[in-house]
Fold this sequence. Notes:
This protein is of the alpha/beta class.
Amino acid sequence: MKSAEVIVVGGGVIGLSIAHVLAREGIRATVLDRGEPGRAASWAGAGMIPPHIERLATNPTIELRSWSAVLYPEWSQELLESTGIDNGYRRTGGVDVAFTEGEEQELKTSAGRWRAERIVYERITPGDFDRIEPALNPELRLAYFLPDRAQIRNPRHIKALVASLKASGVAIHSGRAILGFEASRARVMAVRTEEGTLPCDRVVVAAGAWSGGLLAGLGVQAPTPPVKGQIVLLGAGLPRIRRIIEHGKNYLVPRDDGRILIGATEEEAGFDTRTTSEGFSDLLAEAHRLCPNLVGAEVERSWAGLRPGSFDSKPYLGLAPGFENLFVAAGHKRAGLQLAPATAEVISDLVLGRVPRVDLNPYRIDREPGGLVDPTFRS
């Protein structure tokens, strides 16, 4: 097989985004995916984007998230102009809500972090819900409105990325399972697939929950245990909610056509992507509790995806220990869609031999557990 300058292992939103930035820099990477591009965790997410704010250098984990939020409207416009595909980027705003006194205190703590980051928010009491989100249950104790919270329709975003890459001459190979790598000294020389061996100059492993197993074959310890997330989709119709609604780990996301995503469970179930009656009923009950007007809404379908975990809930970003041409972008858990643009920019910096524009020390593959985290937003 013909040698490739850069091979990106994994065609989810992280891998496709990295290939997108490299193409912009004149590098036509080869993308390999065990299935269809973007059909795993990237397809299953809700596409929630945190508030669009300027980059703050107070904390590298916050900076990565903030930079992605700034990049998303730029990327969305660029993809629309180059492919004609609208990825559904919308600044719909969102509300975080609390039913109990404990949840109220947690929200107040989050509000303190938002204030420190200069994120715009407003405290909303039950008597004022109608002004922001009339569908909210009046029994809620409190809600915080964040007008700059946004969303993308992730399947359309994946479609736009794929179209852009193909137009740029990037080769995307679907159904190409990776068997392993051939390495010599400190370099990966080739990627072994079911259809043959592909020599390469540089490799980026961005294979989601499968990344850890592939890296283990090279002696690199970066576990990415799958975290199963089930989602329910309510059918199109008259808009029943206006804003993204978050309650703890659960969310409701309204689309332009009236559909509503209800998510998401967090389960340790290995690589099992089957939906369950328990997960389905729990998500519906949560939606009905948050917004009673959703009772009776049509259920269109449900599905599950496997988010790639890590040993401390932060992604692995950087050069693999012991190698000079093996890069890792994995372990984003619930924040893959949210962090994809900034992740792609910093990994492309490394691949091209530049100093990354965000301090990647907290994301080193060989880091100690713990350290800086960013608990403020989920996607």
